[in-house]
Amino acid sequence: MQGISLGSWILDLENLTFDETENRLKVLGIEKNKMLLPDTLDFFLQRIYVEDLPRVQDLILNLIQGEIDAFEVTYRIRTVLGGLRWFHDSCHLIKEKGEANSKRAIGETIDITESKVIEDRLTIEHEHALQNTDEFELRDPLTHLLSKSETIMQLKALIELKRGDIEFLSVALICIKNFFELNDQEGRMITDHVLVRASDIIGKSLNEGDLLGRYSVDCFLVAYKKVPNTMAEAICKNVVDQIESYDYGNDIPVKISYNLAEYLGESANELISKLVCAL
């Protein structure tokens, strides 16, 4: 497992104490020599990310009950500041002479946060790139919104319509400003939740004939037909407030940015470029 070794720890199976290394605690923002720390197993378990906790608890319980004599597990753990680190632990029982049952286990922790961050980013970029393949040509697989290429095509159609009989056409890019920070610190499940909820909130702001699509990994493109810029501005502000105030179960606040422009005769690509440059 690629990462940084944080040293070994000891688990007392009888007294349920957990002796952590100074390096391991330091990574989590805890200074062992400046704080009176409990050495209980519960103190360790309560810091594990809630979705990973049952898996870790089951392995430790099986170890205590003698059903297994070793295990490896990857999990997320909270830092003092509320962020998340990815740890990989390998553990095995210590065989003592003259003892029928092992009373202690020794484990090693490897901090794999950096490799997990890179892995998640590559996965996100790969999935978004798939939108250009035949399989995902029309729809984004996560939000089920129009893909980038289809969104641009539909915007071109709206522009042609605007030239005919639409009085106003306001176009906005609405982006998750701290998307990669959220993904790195909170995890992929949170960012997926934000994207799906944001698409739902933006979707409810639309009227018949308006356009919404997933423009990039962290941005949505929306076009309000027959809506002047002043009214579209109010709609976007309300959308931003709703997305930012929603409870996603995250510690880091979601930050949204947007840019709005009224169609004034330019091409779809020129209009989008103006929005992107202004973000």
TrEMBL record:
Assigned EC number: 2.7.7.65
Record-linked Gene3D superfamilies: 3.30.70.270, PAS domain
Pfam families: GGDEF (PF00990), PAS_3 (PF08447)
PROSITE patterns recorded: GGDEF
Enzyme class, broadest EC rank: transferase
InterPro entries per the UniProt record, alphabetical: GGDEF_dom, Nucleotide_cyclase, PAS-like_dom_sf, PAS_fold_3, Rev_trsase/Diguanyl_cyclase
Superkingdom, taxonomy of origin: Bacteria
UniProtKB keywords: Nucleotidyltransferase, Transferase
Domain spans labelled GGDEF: 167-279
GO molecular function: diguanylate cyclase activity
Keyword set includes Cell division: no
Full protein name: Diguanylate cyclase
Native source organism of the sequence: Fusibacter bizertensis
